[in-house]
Each structure stands twice: as structure tokens, then as C-alpha cells.
Amino acid sequence: MAGDAAGDMAGDTAAALAADLEPVRVERATKSSRIFGVLAAIVLAALISLPWWGDAGWMRLIAEMAYYVALAQLWNLLAGYAGLVSVGQQAYVGLGGYMLFYLTGVWNVNVYVALLLAGPFAGLMSIPVSFAVFRLRGAYFAIGTWVVSEVFSLFASLILVLGAGSGLSLTVPILREISPDRDVRDTLLYLMTLAMSLLVFAIVYLLLRSRHGLALTAIRDSEPASASLGVNTFRTKFLIYVATAACTGLIGGLIFLQKLRISPEAGFSVNDWTVVVIFMVVIGGIGTLEGPFIGMLVYIVLRELLADYGTYYLILLGVIAIAIMLKAPMGIWGWVSHRYDLQLFPVGRRLKLAPTNDPSKR
Question: What is the pTM for the complete model shown?
């Protein structure tokens, strides 16, 4: 009897406490993200229709912006979340480009098939590389990845079937496989670049919203703490490294499909495919999905305005980068997000009070 009475009392107490608690719900999207989603859909529709109302110059510029932001998102995933600060991602840009040219020029593989194989080839090559560079930490890891890229560049310059130091060019029959008409070919390459950039962003976004994204966030905040909570840090970093290498290889194949020519200096250029990308991510905001977009826009605007000034343009870029890192260490978007609590691409969960019909709780 006493036990039943105690149980009833405990149940009544729990019910009373539950009644006093404010009802809550879990949300991912925010008001700002919903508004931005509508605006982004309008902008995307305009970009898709650009070939029918814009000119070839605009298509080339937008395509360049698209593959740069894709490269920046991948480097941000690698360094901003997994903590792998690589200075050698140009290795996979070059490997993807060379794979495309080799398959189409030597083995007469269809250009679309060769493009699809460029990504998996780069990812496959990244597996033995990862076992070597993952033994290094911090600055040694960064230097190690750069050395690996230089080794790939040296090998490409010594292999005759790859054109040695002079490189390779796409022939007219290969270009006709895309389309016999030049305008149609430019349109197809432009739309393929947009689709590739959107695909890369979707992969990164969905990955960060998954349980693997939680593991990456834990690794970013504290690798020892995440390991103590059961996160397999090596496996997570390994999968991210291979996945980013494969996507980078696909982007590299598409970049040089548009450029029509590849050489060791162009394919494995640390300035074009890594330094610029790091600038975008750091300036925009490392560890955020919005940062690479902001950084890409800042870089393109500065380049278009200051390119005529020669070496002063590069000096000014460095000065701007230093100034932003001193004033806003988290980058432009990091500062905006912290100050105004904005998230255009929310990947976490938020608790929000649910609406109630009880006037006493309003």
C-alpha cells in the first residue's frame, strides 16, 4: 500500500512538472535560411538560363566562379571540419585532368565516360597518399601534401605518353563528341560546370547534416575529446580525404575539358588550385558553408578590379587577407554570423518553443 501510494505520488509529481514545462520543437531551418532559399532558387534559375540571354564571356566567368566555389567547399570540408590543412589538393586537380586527356587521347574513350572516370581515379590515387601523409601532423602534414603534389607533377613531366613537359591538347574529334557546334558545346560545358558545383555543394551539405557531420564537428572542436566519445577519427578523416580527392579530380577533369589543354605546370599549379582556394575559404569564413561563397565573390571582384596592376594586385590581396584575419579571425561570414546570428545553410538543430493554446503560457 505504501509502495503504491509512493508510486502514485511520483507519477503525479512527474505529470505536474511536465505540465509546467514549455513545449518545444526541434528545427533545422531558420527564417533567414528559408528566405535565402527562395532567393537562391531564383538566382539559380537565372544562371541556368544564362546561355539564352547572356554572352560567352559571362558564361566563362560564371563557370570559373562555379568550379572555384566547388573547390573551396571541398577544401573547407577538409580543413575547416576534418582538420586536414592540405596544401596539395592541386595534385587531384591535375590527376583528374590528365586522366581525362589520357583516356580520350590514347584509348579513344568517350569524353563523357572519361570525365566520369577522372573522379574515381583521383580518389583511388588518394588512398596510398593518405596512408603516407596521415603519419604527419600540423605543418608537416601541409608540407607533406605539397611535396606529394610536386612528385605527381614531376612524374607527369617525365612520361612521354602524357606529353612530358609540354603537356597534351584535346583534338577536334574529341571536341565534336561533346557537340559539333561550338555554341552548343560552350552551353553544355557551362551547364555541366553548374551541375557539378551544385552536386559538390549538395554532397557537403548533406554530409554535414548527417551523423558523419556531427563526428566532423566534434573532431573540429577537439579531436582528443571526440575520440574519447567513440568517434573513429582516423576512419572519418580517411573517408573525407578520399571523397574530397575524388570530387576534386572530377572538377579537375571538367576544368581542363574547358581549357582544352593541360601541362604539368597548369595541372599541378599550387597557386591556381590551392593558394587561391585557401584565400577564399579563410577570407570568407573557414568552417562555414557560406564562407566559400563570400570568399569567392571577394576574390573575383578584387581580381577583376585590380588585375591590371600586375604584381601590386597580388600584394594587395595579401594585405587584404592579413587585415581581415586580424580584424575578423573567423572570416567575413564568421563575423556576420556571430554578430547577427545568421545561418543561411543551417546544419545543426535548434530547440524552439512550440506554439500553445494555453493563454497562461503565452
Answer: 0.90
